[in-house]
Amino acid sequence: MRIRPARTDEAAALTELVLRSKAHWGYGAEFLAACREELTIRPEDIHRRRVVVAEDADSGVVGVASLEGTAPEGSLGLCFVEPAAISRGVGRALYFHVTGAARELGFARLTIEADPNAEPFYRRMGARPVGSTPAGSLAGRELPLLEVRLRPRTEGWTQAWTAGRRAVHLGNVAGFQSQFGPVSPQATHYSCLAAFLSPHPAVLVLPAAVPPDWTDLIGRPLGWGPVEVYDGLTEPPGRPGGQPDSQPDGPMARATRPAPEAQGDTLTRAVLSRPALLRRLNSLDLPLLPWGRTPAVAELTGVPLDPEALRYESKRASHELFTRLAPDHPEIRVPEQWQPATRRETARLLRRRARVGLTTVVKTEHGAGGSGTVVVRDQGRGGLPRLRRPPLPRGPVLLEEFVAGETEPRDVTFDGLVDADGRVHGVGVAVMDVLGTAYRGATVGPGVVPPALAEAVARFGAAVGERIAASGHRGWYDVDFVTGSDGRPAPTEINLRMTGPSVAFMVKARLDETRGGDHFVRSVDHVPLGARLPGPALSAFLRETTVRCAGIEAVLLPSIPTAAFAPAPYLGVVLAAHTRERLDAAEALVRTAAHDTGRLFTTQG
Predict the structure, then answer these.
(1) Closest C-alpha to 148, from 111, 121, 123
(2) Are 135 and 102 in contact, with CB atoms under 8 Å apart?
(3) Of 154, 243, 239, 244, which is closest to residue 199 (Cα–Cα)?
């Protein structure tokens, strides 16, 4: 399907399409006759009303829409779909096309006089009800009036990230982790988050096979259009999605899974080993965005990886940087950190601190999502902590002062990026959901972080960005903080890669652009399922739950679908809404629905 400007010689045919679409709602001949004059499209209207059509290769013209008025305020005057094409995404495509064109032309607000039957559709698209308006054809009839607030394209971080273009997304989560130690068992599932490495992907390259309808489930609400997916590239033949291609070097050919002891960016190496896939990606001439930079990514993109570029992924090095920056940032407190040479020295220091009632954070030098981090409290007799429960991380560790406090929000993060020229661009500040030391998700949106805290965190995060840029880092980064009892944020680590919170920022940028308004967005990386869901059951569950979320004016995007059939099944999701209350309601709805999946397989006695 493509969308193009309408031609003047199509005016009569388009009028008949509009009337057929109107009749779909069950209106009788008398009602339609009364509406005909108002709904007629004349040849002279085509250019004046900016009329466009959706055209299907098999069926011809299947929809019509118009953008009317003069910037900064106008209206979505027409949006009608051929009845046989309803529920095929035509209306959604027309809506996003018109709002995108309006933004480019400088419109800040569009109104919609909606048929009552179409109002739920527009609300799902992000339009907000603002009252009612008299119908133009029938006296005494009122129509729902909605509005769309449009944000102009800016030269901010989204432009710095992809120059406003679509991108190729590479889910090399495991490859990035392997540079610093053992790879998390969840890395393959987490690689699905690479679908959100930019607001608008053109291609996804993923290690594991994903459900065939997954990109449709997330792409429709985000107005993506077709996305090429090359998945299962590190799965062995014979597994789901692991069958070899008929051509040895074909784009969808699968690589053999490396031996457990093998390290390296196997996904990127799989791409490099497929000439046909390389030719396809190169032919697109689009930005290639990895989850994180590796030597293999440098080979793939031709952009060298500076030996010092990832230095501050180390929690030891990042703490040293925080300490150097602290004098210029009195609103920030840097917790003390110690680097014991042996595990015996670690135990002695922990006991010494415990005797005076101090809690200590034990960290490995590298780790993601809270892995390798343990909080040791006074749990034993005589003030001595039990060092075996929970066990200390393996290998050399760092000890850090535990920053106590119950101020909300407790865990926050600053996201930014360093462009190819070394310039730092702030993205935003998010609230993280952390249970113990485990990261579970993040929320972004207006007022989520109090202004004073957000300003302090952003200022320090930008200063960190300047230093990591000087060390050679290019790309995304974030700085994590905890808030102490005095209200001051304390930086804890730097991540030189994409992260869970970055997903929320990407989705917010896309929804704000295509649907208007200022969205609240929450990424939730682990929603337990009540039962393991095979492919068809998972698709049915996601589609039903998506509709239920739309019913409360929220958007549901399944972000991690591959763990739905794991031994301990779960989903990752991203939720969005225009209010915090609807966002919370959507999360409660999804969690309840996920828990209740067990009932699908309960046998009644």
Answers:
(1) 111
(2) no
(3) 154
How many whole angstroms from its chain centre is CA 163? 18
SS3 520: strand
Strand order in the sheet with 51-56: 2-5, 51-56, 60-70, 73-81, 109-113, 142-149, 128-134
- Kindly state the DSSP code that residue 173 receives in the 8-state scheme: H
81 vs 62: CA distance, rounded Å:
6
Query: Are 516 and 148 a contacting pair, CB within 8 Å?
Result: yes
Beta carbons of 82 and 21 less than 8 angstroms apart: yes
Handedness of CA 543, 545, 551, 555 (dihedral sign): negative
Alpha carbon distance 564, 212 (integer Å): 14
Residue keyed to tokens 């997330």 = 218
Rg of the Cα atoms in the chain = 27
Which residue do the tokens 């995304």 mark?
476
d(CA 542, CA 137) in angstroms, rounded, equals 40
CB 431 within 8 A of CB 448: yes
* Strand positions, DSSP E, 385-461: 398-401, 411-418, 424-435, 438-444
Q: Residue 513's pLDDT band (boundaries 50, 70, 90)?
A: confident
How many angstroms separate the CA atoms of 95 and 29, rounded? 28
Listed residue (576, 590, 560) closest to 507, CA to CA: 576
SS3 225: coil
Closest of 236, 370, 389, 237 to residue 315, by C-alpha: 370
220 within 8 A of 237, measured Cβ to Cβ: no
Q: Quote the pLDDT of residue 437.
A: 76
**Beta pairing class for 489-495 and 520-528:** unpaired
Q: What is the pLDDT of residues 374-390, one digit of tens each?
A: 888 765 544 445 544 45
